[in-house]
Automatic annotation (TrEMBL):
Organism: Solanum verrucosum
Similarity section: Belongs to the disease resistance NB-LRR family.
Any Pfam family: NB-ARC
Protein known as: NB-ARC domain-containing protein
Function: Confers resistance to late blight (Phytophthora infestans) races carrying the avirulence gene Avr1. Resistance proteins guard the plant against pathogens that contain an appropriate avirulence protein via an indirect interaction with this avirulence protein. That triggers a defense system including the hypersensitive response, which restricts the pathogen growth.
InterPro entries xrefs: Apaf_helical (IPR042197), Disease_R_plants (IPR044974), LRR_dom_sf (IPR032675), NB-ARC (IPR002182), P-loop_NTPase (IPR027417), WH-like_DNA-bd_sf (IPR036388), WHD_DRP (IPR058922)
Lineage top rank: taxon: Eukaryota
Keyword hit for Ubl conjugation: no
Length: 717
């Protein structure tokens, strides 16, 4: 909010924390009142109810206007009294996305330690050896382990590789799933005993390298080591921990724990300049003050990287850097406490909307891989950031993790900012412990005995429920949670094998829904939806309602088999006198087994990502291939056919169609298509193709590669 207008996205950093939180709470409560009234308008089933709700809506707007007026006067008065204070200097950073880069893991200052771990892994010892790296949080244990693990020579010496992140909150099932995923292929529906058997059999007789990152207890190790066979074939386990007694517990006599060292001042400076200036030299004017800044990091790599990220977003002036140095010099205590202070400083420099985005990341389960595309869709659904049709991620990062020290900062700040809250455990007890200020609640890893119906909201307003469970017996009491909170914007319950079709239709403010259903869901009142992910809770074919074709804001549509998307022509026939129905904002589409795939594609002309999975015996593939030509913005195409004859794509038509495919296609994956080999050369006409994957994709005796056929950007085949 500023003097020229009222916005929840811009709150001055010059006001006190108390006033800032007061602004936030006023905005939240105003939004809740308006949304509640809008909900009554949308759900009104009689004219008198609709008129009453409209009158109430106008009255609520007047109340909001009055509150904002008085609050703005209060803020202006405080800002006047604080005029000239140094707190305004915090506004010198920029959040320009063009400056954000994704960099490879570096080992500046760790070369000797890399060689030490490397040599231990290839040592001529037949026994299964456990090698441990021990050190405080943020010192670079994981970075060192990752660099060794990814080394091409190390990879070539082992038959099987797996990376497992344990974390302080040890989750046996999650650990097993990570190992199974690495060596065979994950199946969450199996029991823990079955998963353990799969891991043991998958590793038996094979030389393996397992990295166990961030282990906190000897009990966790005792449970884990039983699944790793010792066949005296030079298999290795590389383990990282903060706790010396854990490292000593798993220690092998000839391989004592490796204590991760701090960076020297020179190495800290090299790391800092690489992060800030990339390959460019540091300006001479900033070199002295820059080294003073680095000195305050006390050789802790995480602190160096965070401070580098902070100053890298500033204008590179002496005054800006001097201000950072003065803040750093004010921090006292141990290296660990100073690191937390540095993380907090970097957080405080963020714009308000990016603070919300950052805190949202922190509530995902500890050390869990986070899907970047999903995270961005959730940010958009929560209205932390705006959706822009001409903007997209650069595609180089599919998943991310948050360092546990940063996650600790997130969890502590959420109690101040009132943006998000994580709940593990008994839901009713939890609801009694909070008030109506919490905006987002993520319920993580619940067991059946942790939810008890009936549920009551007690005036609490939720905008998001996200449940992430790795158990197979799911609490049906979750229905009472979902139905009780009427203003939800995000419902992410896909991991629960339960039917949510009965509770979705009345959540009119939903922007993101990922759930399992057994019945068709009426979406005609959910006009804010941007992401729809529906999977089946049973095995019955189910056509999704025609309402989907009237939802112009949809950007991501994933309807899993045996569900399928309805015929747009049928929806259009019901809309007499209206314009033809197109989903022009849709960018990602997974139609699976819909018998109307060709027509669906023609009605979604701006797709960037399309995945077709079809096991129908008689799909109309000529029509489907023909429809692909209209997708001029398509970047990723995945076709998976389970039933197809060898002559399905033969003849002269396919080559003509391939020549007309979008030149923007970067990734192409074909399964079961049985395309003649001579057609492959036409794929070289796709100028931006960098990934080509296939499984039974082509047919013929051999692939004759012509010298004049060049895949200009192909990186993966």
């Amino acid at each position: 909010m500023n003097k020229k207008g009222y916005s929840s996205a811009t709150i001055f950093v010059s006001v006190s924390t108390l006033i800032r939180l007061k602004i936030t709470n006023v905005v939240y409560k105003a939004e809740d009142r308006v949304d509640s009234t809008l909900r009554r308008i949308i759900l009104a089933d009689r004219e008198d109810k609709w008129q009453k709700a409209c009158t109430s809506f106008y009255e609520e707007l007047l109340k909001v206007e009055q509150q904002v007026y008085f609050l703005n006067r209060e803020v202006m008065l405080i800002e006047f009294n604080n005029h000239g204070s140094k707190s305004a200097e915090l506004a010198t950073t920029t959040s320009s996305p063009e400056k954000i880069t994704i960099e490879e893991n570096t080992i500046i200052g760790m070369e000797d330690e890399f060689n030490t771990i490397f040599n231990r892994l290839i040592a001529p010892t037949d026994k299964l050896v456990v090698i441990s790296i021990v050190g405080m949080g943020g010192i670079g244990k994981t970075s060192l382990a990752r660099k060794v693990y990814d080394n091409s020579y190390i990879r070539s010496r082992f038959d099987k590789h797996a990376w497992v992140t344990v974390s302080e909150e040890y989750n046996k099932r999650q650990m097993l799933l990570e190992v199974v995923s690495s060596i065979t292929g994950s199946n969450q529906e199996m029991s823990n005993d079955k998963l353990m058997e799969i891991v043991y059999r998958g590793l038996k007789g094979r030389r393996f390298l397992i990295v166990i990152d961030d282990i906190w207890s000897t009990e966790a190790w005792d449970q884990m080591q039983r699944i790793f066979p010792n066949d005296d074939n030079r298999s290795r386990i590389l383990l990282t921990t903060r706790l010396k007694y854990v490292a000593d517990y798993v220690n092998f006599p000839d391989y004592p724990p490796h204590s991760k060292s701090f960076l020297s001042l020179d190495d800290s400076w090299n790391l800092f300049t690489e992060k800030v200036f990339k390959k460019d030299p540091c300006p001479h004017l900033l070199e002295e003050i820059g080294k003073h800044i680095v000195q305050q990091c006390r050789g802790l790599p995480l602190s160096v990287v965070v401070v580098a990220g902070l100053v890298g977003k500033m204008d590179p002036t002496y005054d800006n850097w001097k201000n950072v140095e003065e803040n750093l010099k004010s921090f006292f205590g141990t290296v660990s406490k100073r690191c937390q202070s540095i993380l907090s400083l970097s957080y405080n420099y963020l714009p308000q909307y990016l603070k919300a985005c950052f805190l949202y990341v922190g509530v995902f389960p500890e050390d869990r891989e986070i899907d970047v595309s999903k995270l961005i869709r959730l940010w958009i659904a929560e209205q932390f950031i705006k959706a822009r049709s001409n903007k997209r991620a650069n595609g180089r990062m599919r998943t991310c993790k948050i360092h546990d020290l940063l996650r600790q900062l997130c969890l502590s700040e959420t109690h101040t900012e009132n943006v998000v809250h994580v709940m593990n455990g008994n839901v009713p007890m939890f609801l009694k412990s909070i008030d109506d200020q919490w905006r987002v609640i993520l319920l993580s890893e619940l067991q059946e005995n942790q939810i008890y119906p009936p549920m009551h909201s007690n005036g609490i307003t939720l905008t998001c429920i996200s449940l992430q469970s790795f158990y197979y017996t799911f609490p049906e009491g979750i229905y009472s949670i979902v139905s009780e909170f009427k203003l939800l914007k995000v419902l992410d319950v896909l991991t629960f094998w339960l039917d949510f079709s009965s509770v979705i239709s009345d959540l009119v403010h939903l922007r993101y829904v990922a759930a399992r259903i057994e019945e068709g869901v009426s979406l005609n009142k959910l006009r804010n939806l941007q992401t729809i992910i529906f999977k089946s809770a049973g095995k019955t074919e189910l056509e999704q309602p025609l309402d989907i074709w009237r939802m112009s804001d949809i950007r991501h549509l994933d309807i899993g088999s045996p569900l399928y998307i309805c015929n747009p022509l049928e929806a259009e026939n019901e809309s007499i006198g209206e314009q033809p129905l197109f989903l022009n904002n849709l960018q990602k589409l997974y139609p699976y087994n819909s018998p109307f795939v060709a027509e669906i594609i023609r009605r979604t002309p701006n797709l960037k990502r399309l995945k077709i999975l079809n096991d129908s015996e008689h799909p109309d593939w000529p029509a489907i291939v023909d429809s692909l030509i209209v997708l001029e913005k398509l970047e990723t195409l995945h076709i998976n056919l389970k039933t197809i004859g060898p002559n399905m794509f033969s003849g002269d038509i396919l080559p003509i169609k391939i020549k007309k495919l979008s030149p923007n296609i970067k990734k192409l994956r074909l399964i079961g298509t049985c395309i003649p080999w001579e057609v492959v050369k036409l794929l070289a006409n796709l100028p931006n193709l960098d990934v080509l994957k296939g499984n039974n994709a082509f047919t013929g005796t051999y692939w004759k590669v012509d010298e004049d056929v060049v895949f200009h950007k192909l990186k993966y085949l």
